[in-house]
Amino acid sequence: MNLSNLLSLVAVITIFLAVLLSFFLVSVKTQNKLSNRLFALFLIWTAIDISGVVIDSFLTEVGNLQMLRPLFIFLQLPTFYLYVKSACYSDFKLKWIHLLHIIPFLLVNTILIPRYYAVDLLGKVDFLSNIQSMWEIQFNFILIHIQIAVYLILAFLNIKKAKRLYLENYAGESIETFNWLFQFTVALSIFYGIALLKNIFKFSEYQEWSDSLTVGLFVFELLIISWYLLKALTHPNLFRSLDSKLQLVEHIISEDEQEEDNDTNETSEELIALKKYMEEEQPYLNPGLTIQDISDAIEIPVRELSLLINHQLNQHFYDFVNSYRIEHAKKMLKDPSKNKWTVLEILYESGFNSKSSFNTAFKKHTGTTPTSYRKSL
């Protein structure tokens, strides 16, 4: 099998999976409808982008489609960025202002009108024959890589902020989904980094290197889509989204610096009330516990409770709750009457709802694994 046939085969498989996953995301019943649809749209742009390997072999003459198709890449990263926003925040909605994200796509097509879209067949052939020296193509090449860098940075910043908000306000297992979203964005960054290298070779004397990297990119893209498909099937409710109105503690502190300091005695009383509630009522056994739940129970406003835990105790709410869960798990591991209990049973009884989150939290608080801890007793 030659390089061209291999490329076509991988492209067809990738396009098939992308379309299949898009259909699954749009049709599946879930609360994350908007984020699913945005990611499905991202996959459609991706399928269009790589379809050139297949479509171009069937085109008998030069046309506008050959230029328009690869330019859909200018819609990929804006759509992915909006997907990240919708996946992180439950109240995210598409607004008219989001149409600004399509400006680069419109711009690159507009500048091609005079010397490509609006000319006859001979003009198009002449343009494609000298494509590497055309300023429109060079401009598009520079713009797409600037756009990729900007949107990937924005995606990483949004994930980082959302994860911090989650740690300060929630104590479930969903932190793992933010870690996965970060990993997926890293994978995309690597993909586009290789694509940049491929394009550099394409406009140089090392054309054969560009062809080899193209095959590698298609295989990598196939792996990324397969990875997401696996996650979508095994974790249909991938994200527990946040309220975008939540504030980071550092912002609350910054605002409070302009106001009077809290009374020390009042803070101490609130801290005593919080610890008493945690020890006596054991709310941490609820795997879906949120800071709002505790706020309602001990009648301390969420804002003050967040400052108390994150600033006064110097802990994220996530770690604060897990510290109680781990102590509860340690007592169960020490209890002779529970010797026959499995680690899985103990983690569920302690308020965790996944083995990976339990092992990570246990090792963070004790320096060892649950199994090793039990053996050392």
From TrEMBL:
PROSITE patterns given in the database record: HTH_ARAC_FAMILY_1 (PS00041), HTH_ARAC_FAMILY_2 (PS01124)
Transmembrane segments: 6-26, 38-55, 67-84, 96-117, 137-159, 180-201, 213-230
Membrane recorded as keyword: yes
Family matches, as SMART domains: HTH_ARAC
InterPro entries in the cross-refs: Homeodomain-like_sf, HTH_AraC, HTH_AraC-typ_CS, Tscrpt_reg_AraC-type_HTH
Keywords: DNA-binding, Membrane, Transcription, Transcription regulation, Transmembrane, Transmembrane helix
Domain annotation HTH araC/xylS-type: ranges: 272-376
Protein's name in the database: AraC-like DNA-binding protein
Organism: Nonlabens dokdonensis
